[in-house]
Amino acid sequence: MAFLFTMMHGANIVDCEISSSALDDLDHTKGTLPGERQAQFMRLRETVERVASVAFEQGKRKGEPVRIFSKQSRRCDDRWNAAAFLKPPAFRRTRPSRGR
């Protein structure tokens, strides 16, 4: 299961997805019900955008969606406390898509 969302990079729309387990890792919880997933995403939106921005900058594969898995979210979560990672994301906010 994954939650789909889009972000902007300049004038380009970038498709993104974050796994349910990655959202739970960022929320320090387990087993969030599918009906509660959008509220969880909105609560964690800033952090998810930062993780997606880092993943995009590291990958930069044109046309491919940015995918965030549990392993990435655990690795990035500890770094958000560092001042170097408090810069704005490379993307401009858009809106969540439907989760699948």
From TrEMBL:
Q: What is this protein called?
A: DUF1488 domain-containing protein
Pfam families xref list:
DUF1488 (PF07369)
Q: According to the lineage, what is the superkingdom?
A: Bacteria
